[in-house]
Write a structure and sequence with these properties.
Blueprint lengths: L2 E3 L20 E3 L4 E3 L10 H4 L5 E3 L9 H9 L16 H4 L12
Antiparallel strand pairs: 1-4, 2-3
Bound molecules: iron/sulfur cluster (SF4).
């Protein structure tokens, strides 16, 4: 079991939870973060730290967001680790809650 980053992270990409992860399980892409499910120890520290509510237990991910589970598994083994938080994109707040962001994912 692991936590997963769901699509509301796309173009918001807050990264401060990289500072709280004890096992450096986060991976960074151009406009999205994912969690490597093989490294996540399910401590739960990152879930409340995400201010856009993008991080969820994989068993709690609702149907329309379930493609995110596969994305975390795929991209978590491709993208580089992010070991420390950095400033978000300047327009991050404008993207919070925008529907259909999966189509905007940059790999
Ligand atoms: Fe890291 Fe814990 Fe979040 Fe897993 S649940 S990604 S181990 S902070």
């Amino acid at each position: 079991m692991a936590l997963v980053v769901t699509e509301n992270c796309i173009n918001c990409k807050h990264t401060y939870w990289a500072d709280v992860c004890p096992v450096e399980a986060f991976r960074e892409g151009p406009n999205f973060l994912v969690i490597n499910p093989d490294e996540c120890i399910d401590c739960g520290l990152c879930e409340p730290a995400c201010i856009v509510g993008a991080i969820m237990d994989e068993h709690a991910v609702p149907g329309q967001l379930r493609p995110s589970i596969q994305l975390n598994a795929q991209l978590g083994n491709v993208w580089p680790k992010i070991r420390a938080g950095k400033p978000p994109p300047p327009d991050a707040e404008e993207w919070d809650g925008v529907p259909g962001k999966l189509a905007l994912l940059e790999r």
